[in-house]
Amino acid sequence: MSDPIPYGFKANLDAPPEEAEARLRDALAEEGFGVLTEIDVRATFREKLDVDFRPYRILGACSPPLAHQALTAEEDIGLLLPCNVVVYEGEQPGTSVVAALDPVLQLGVSGRDDLGELAHDVRARMQRVIRGLETG
């Protein structure tokens, strides 16, 4: 994966944001995730702040079986769900960046060692999503 970040992983794609997002959604689905929430940051900034911003979307990805497992262990863990994934316009025209929050760090704030295996499973799935976008 390109450009490591301390709280997640990301990939730079030679594709415009719309194409990158479509590929991202397909890759998430292949790993058992659906998109529950969507925030169009650009549109929100335009509407609420009257400022222009690059195309930028925040997607809340969720795997119902994995979410059920986490919520069964602790009901309040929903504060740490879903998995955030972003897709935004890169520095060069026609490019995009896709990044995912590291689920091990995300669930690690709970202090629940019993969620470690689940968090590592989700991390592996998200890493496959990001890696697949780089090679696909």
Shape: globular
CATH class: Alpha Beta
Rg calc: 15 Å
Number of helices: 5
Mean pLDDT: 95
| Share of β-strand residues | 15-25%
Could you say how many structural domains there are in total? 1
Architecture (CATH level 2) name: 2-Layer Sandwich
| CATH superfamily grouping | TT1751-like domain
> What percent of residues adopt helix (DSSP H or I)?
40-55%
Describe this structure in words.
With 136 residues, this protein is an alpha+beta fold. It has a single domain (8-135), classed as TATA-Binding Protein (2-Layer Sandwich), CATH 3.30.310. It is 43% helix and 24% strand. It contains 5 helices and 5 strands. It has helices spanning 17-30, 41-49, 64-73, 103-108, 116-135; strands at 8-13, 34-40, 56-62, 83-89, 96-101. A hairpin with a 6-residue loop joins strand 4 and strand 5. The longest helix has 20 residues, at 116-135. The radius of gyration is 15 Å and the shape is globular. The two termini are 13 Å apart.
Summary tags:
5 strands; five-stranded antiparallel sheet; globular; 136 residues; 5 helices; single chain; alpha+beta; TATA-Binding Protein
Provide a concise account of the structure shown:
By secondary structure, the chain is α+β, with helices and mostly antiparallel strands.
Secondary-structure blueprint of this entry?
Elements: E1 8-13, H1 17-30, E2 34-40, H2 41-49, E3 56-62, H3 64-73, E4 83-89, E5 96-101, H4 103-108, H5 116-135
Helix pairs in contact: 1-5
